[in-house]
Design brief:
Strand content: 25-35%
CATH superfamily of one domain: Vaccinia Virus protein VP39
Number of strands: 10
Helix content: 40-55%
Bound molecules: S-adenosylmethionine
Order of helices and strands: HHEHEHHEHEHEHEEHEEHHE
CATH topology of one domain: Rossmann fold
Shape: globular
Largest sheet: 8 strands, mixed
CATH class of one domain: Alpha Beta
């Protein structure tokens, strides 16, 4: 059965492989040069989910002395993050303080005390769910002058399920799925764009931010000797669940053909045959 927390946990190994190492390394070097000498680094992660990026930053050694604030709008995610990161929030690691809060990023960004407060802002697998013209100015306003941002896993308009089942149906499902991202409305406002990855470059510049590095971070999921790594078979079933729940009943899709397509794709996962690719881009940069 589908479970969002398990999806985010299963996504960890897929993201680990995908993240662009040039962008990560550029960020690490910029942080090394800009880290404050007299206090811990102030890090904010928005849309932090169950906290896998916190783990990654520590395991990959992005910083050693930091106050890391992670917010997410869903209490169930914050709850899962507290359980997952209990060893980091217990207070026995004074060099690293992790605080987890349930908060909407727009409300958080509006609060006076948060303006220009952070040295590093992270948004991972989030910006393609937001309306960039509204989100970027709010988010970048949280950074102090000269502060750094890391915006990773931004979807960029290509989804492949292989091998082909029926080229025309495969293409139609991909196109309708992307269109659903472009027309999504949350709380009466547009939210998300299937080409966020490529749009970010100029959207950041228009906000006065400087891009220090950008590069692709495609998800590529396949089995080795018939077995998917870690919990990635679950990850694939979740992706198929998203496609199904988004397009079920769509008037431009034959219901029977779509059911058969989903059944075939699920069988391919069970046999270790399905290959899934999603094109994405990572960015890091600085605000002036
Ligand atoms: C695709 S998930 C990614 C989660 C996490 N970054 C990861 O990759 O594991 C997007 C997350 O953003 C959160 N989110 C969406 N809109 C938000 C908002 N306006 N404020 C705060 N969090 C938000 C969702 O609850 C969800 O956990």
């Amino acid at each position: 059965m589908y479970d969002f927390n398990r999806y985010l946990a299963a996504k960890r190994s897929v993201d680990d492989r995908a993240l662009n190492r040039h962008v990560w390394q550029t960020l690490a070097e910029a942080l090394g040069a800009a880290a404050p000498a007299d206090r811990p680094l102030r890090v904010l992660e928005v849309g932090a989910g169950i906290g896998t990026m916190v783990e990654r930053c520590i395991e990959w050694g992005l910083f050693t002395r930091a106050e890391y604030m992670a917010i997410d709008s869903e209490e169930s995610n914050t709850h899962a993050a507290r359980a997952r990161l209990a060893h980091l929030t217990s207070g026995d690691k004074p060099a690293l303080q992790v605080r987890l809060r349930t908060a909407d990023l727009y409300d958080f960004a509006e609060r006076e005390e948060n303006r220009q407060r952070f040295d590093l802002l992270i948004a991972h697998a989030l910006l393609d769910l937001l309306h960039l013209p509204a989100a970027l100015p709010s988010l970048l306003g949280l950074l102090r002058p000269g502060g750094l941002f890391y915006f990773s896993i931004n979807f960029d308009g290509a989804t492949l399920f292989l091998p082909e089942v029926d080229p025309a149906l495969d293409s139609r499902i991909e196109a309708l799925y992307h269109r659903s991202m472009d027309t999504r409305v949350t709380d009466g406002k547009p939210s998300g764009d299937s080409r966020t990855g490529r749009r970010l470059f100029h959207a950041l510049r228009e906000c006065g931010a400087e891009v220090l590095a950008a590069g692709s971070s495609d998800w590529v999921v396949h089995a080795v000797d018939g077995v998917y790594p870690a919990d990635e078979a679950c990850f694939l079933y979740c992706i198929l669940h998203f496609v199904e729940s988004t397009l079920r009943g769509h008037r431009e899709l034959d219901a029977g053909a779509f059911e058969a397509w989903l059944a075939t794709r699920r069988r391919q996962v069970a046999r270790g045959e399905l290959v899934y690719v999603a094109h994405q881009l990572d960015y890091c940069g600085r605000v002036d």
